[in-house]
Amino acid sequence: MEPESLIQKYETEVARLVALKATLGVEEGRLKFLPLVGLVVGIAVGALTKPAYGLLPLALSVVTVGTGLYLTRVHRMERDYNLARAKKELARLKAEAKAIGGTTGTRASAPSPSPSPSSASPEAHAGAEVASVDAKGSEG
User: I want to staple 38 with a disulfide (CB 3.0 to 4.6 A). Which of 55, 58, 59, 108 is the partner?
Assistant: First the structure.
């Protein structure tokens, strides 16, 4: 694959990961209001039924917030890890492209045509070697 297309793909990936991190921040901000909703619903349920039942929506909202915070923070750590790797690889590709372009003024070599699937497989190479050995053995 050409370095320019790889660089473009990594730049797209970095932008995507940054956007995903921003989305996680928004989701984490929305979770702050869930205990308030649980409290309001709990008061209403407690007033209409037994007061102890009013604690259930509040407890459920607190557990949901805890789970949501855990999941968003784990995803944020994963995005940070992937973002650091993508930025490192992008910097390496840019340096490599600059080194190739800077030494010769153009690309070092033209891309070689891709081999056909049958000749690229290890089985095809092994079969060709066996055929050449058989041909040599039958000659001698």
Answer: 58
93 touches 8 (CB < 8 A): no
8 Å CB contact between 101 and 28: no
**Contact residues for 2 (Cβ-Cβ < 8 A; gap 6+):** 111
Cβ atoms within 10 Å, residue 89: 15
What would the pLDDT profile of 48-102 be if each residue is shown by its tens digit? 998 888 899 999 999 999 999 999 999 999 999 999 999 999 999 899 888 887 6
56 burial level (CB within 10 Å; 0-12, 13-18, 19+) = middle
